[in-house]
């Protein structure tokens, strides 16, 4: 619920975190790419073009792109999440 604080002990998995993302591209979590594209009144011919338009839309509005990398991330399935700058700062993803 908006404005509510959560206990620091509460477990947050990728599905809980995805509820706070503006948009995401993930092999683990369905970010509803086409629904997000429709929400921003855009169309695209491919998933790659759709994600490019979504990413540009949010980055132009001051959001932050987080790329998740590591040995468990398959190169053909990029992991990118877009958060509002304030949330990214609270998560420690940006400087103070």
UniProtKB/TrEMBL annotation:
Name of the protein: Uncharacterized protein
Native source organism of the sequence: Deinococcus gobiensis (strain DSM 21396 / JCM 16679 / CGMCC 1.7299 / I-0)
Lineage of the organism: Bacteria, Thermotogati, Deinococcota, Deinococci, Deinococcales
